[in-house]
Amino acid sequence: xxxxxxxxxxxxxxxxxxxxxxxxxxxxxxxxxxxxxxxxxxxxxxxxxxxxxxxxxxxxxxxxxxxxxxxxxxxxxxxxxxxxxxxxxxxxxxxxxxxxxxxxxxxxxxxxxxxxxxxxxxxxxxxxxxxxxxxxxxxxxxxxxxxxxxxxxxxxxxxxxxxxxxxxxxxxxxxxxxxxxxxxxxxxxxxxxxxxxxxxxxxxxxxxxxxxxxxxxxxxxxxxxxxxxxxxxxxxxxxxxxxxxxxxxxxxxxxxxxxxxxxxxxxxxxxxxxxxxxxxxxxxxxxxxxxxxxxxxxxxxxxxxxxxxxxxxxxxxxxxxxxx
Amino acid sequence: xxxxxxxxxxxxxxxxxxxxxxxxxxxxxxxxxxxxxxxxxxxxxxxxxxxxxxxxxxxxxxxxxxxxxxxxxxxxxxxxxxxxxxxxxxxxxxxxxxxxxxxxxxxxxxxxxxxxxxxxxxxxxxxxxxxxxxxxxxxxxxxxxxxxxxxxxxxxxxxxxxxxxxxxxxxxxxxxxxxxxxxxxxxxxxxxxxxxxxxxxxxxxxxxxxxxxxxxxxxxxxxxxxxxxxxxxxxxxxxxxxxxxxxxxxxxxxxxxxxxxxxxxxxxxxxxxxxxxxxxxxxxxxxxxxxxxxxxxxxxxxxxxxxxxxxxxxxxxxxxxxxx
Lengths: 324, 324
Description:
L-2-Hydroxyisocaproate Dehydrogenase, Chain A, domain 2; Rossmann fold; 19% strand; 6-stranded parallel beta sheet; homodimer; 41% helix; 10 helices; alpha/beta
């Protein structure tokens, strides 16, 4: 059997963490032949609850789970890690303006960036799930300048999965037959789900649905899906967010088999997006790495949507400029 | 690809259900090449919340999840099912005596037994997770007399997993190297975790730990683990219960590869347990069926523990005699 790899999860006692840990321990992410050691980080007041989560992981007797670490010290959590899920964050709430948001998340992600640089493996794969995830990833990446920026990513896979789910329901086909929706930009208000390239059973989705459905139903449904889940379930998306984080990391780790998957990663200037912004692009994963699909011939509307996302993310970047 | 099978989960909007559904949809239970249709049952007031759970399942874009049904009608939920997880129940709370408990669970499991007989496949595999699970399974089985009693089981795998976890922690070895603890009897106060047959890396566990640890630490820790998780986590075991339900059904469905797994199933008189009681025995699963390991040479203490469980389960059976 392969040697165990170390995998860190922050905010591990929260609802997304709770949904994520069992998927990791079962082998869904790194493969059925890859043992893991889970290194879980929480804030100090949540350590007792985290210990309860550890007890339940022990009680699940996972053959692939070789050890479990609980800590409130990021350097312990990230020590020798090959993969890191940054789930814990302080999301924006109604009473917070931008400066509050930055004040709350800045110290978390500067500190975690430093600890990743100091303690994790040099080829670590980091996905930020905690919102605002693009800018949190930007902060972490810029506080780990000794690492390749390509170690850092943020999650827009939930948006892509939601988009594929909507097309599956609309056309009454299993979601496995739907592929290649592209999520552009920020996992936030300006996020653009682009079905121009999407396929169902090999045919263009745009040949199966009318354009009004795409702009009038599909796009707003995907954009507001998080709020709709809260209304129905009485709680925010947890298992679907965790599942998308598994998908993001699994494809990065094991390959996407030629499918386009959306990942927010540091731009190299693709599609006119300023270098260094953490921006969601279509990617193909292979050999433990991603490459951006750079040759899509995008139309004016998509160009405008990309520009809106560049504006929003540039503004966020400027607000945290002192942390970069 | 294989045709999809129908899998029902009751209490699907509850905490165990929420942890279970994603494990089923990801392929952890029925295999990576077996598509499923999830048929989720809830009480009428929980249907909106259940719809929120469905939204998140759609949003997870599982390739193996071919359809999702939400209903408050057991006949719809169990229609053509090959596997059923009976998770929803009314557990015993402090203010309830035995007659209250029976009054609360009787109608649930008589009705679900009837619906399973009427609507599910004739070779359906049913596992009852909702407590008191042995007697709930007894009620369901006796209200589905047109089916083979071997279709019905209750879950003691969580106890077995907890036992394996404790031995793994005690000896500092991965839990994959621990096997063959036997859970006897009732998933309740009298449950007996028997390490007499347990192995670690091929050697007898009893040769690695002293007898005092087994009786003074191991047995009480396994027996009271549920309460300890509640104290630490502030919530009852959910993900570990769901994970154990996956293990139970996966081994029944796909085989246990020669390992002994504990399942509560209708006794045929093995080890002196009266015929028809739903009692946990050591089983080996193969070819989609289980067989009880009937030739363990048990000692006097184990015989006493079995007798305690027979007494407890007989008393429960007598209390629900009018429902059988």
